[in-house]
What does this fold into?
Amino acid sequence: MSAAATHPLPTAEALEAVLRQKLQPTTLEVIDESSAHAGHAGANAEGYGTHFRVRIASPLFEGKPRVARHRLVYDALQVFIAQGLHAIAIEVL
It folds into this structure.
């Protein structure tokens, strides 16, 4: 049984809600790029819910190096891994 069969696939709106709650961003854009990854590792037949781009600025990033900023984003989105999230491209603004 696939993860999608047991959990709903993640949506850009769901990722955005969690990021807003956990990181209090001043700027946030979440884009589902899954359809562009058809046939690639981690893609699914549905064409959504597996590959996302996150553009984010947050006061919680201040004074932290790039790797620590990315870790904050990954940690906030861990709940979605079981739902089929395969890849996150992060652009810290």
Remarks:
- The radius of gyration is 13 Å.
- Confidence is low (pLDDT under 50) at residues 1-5.
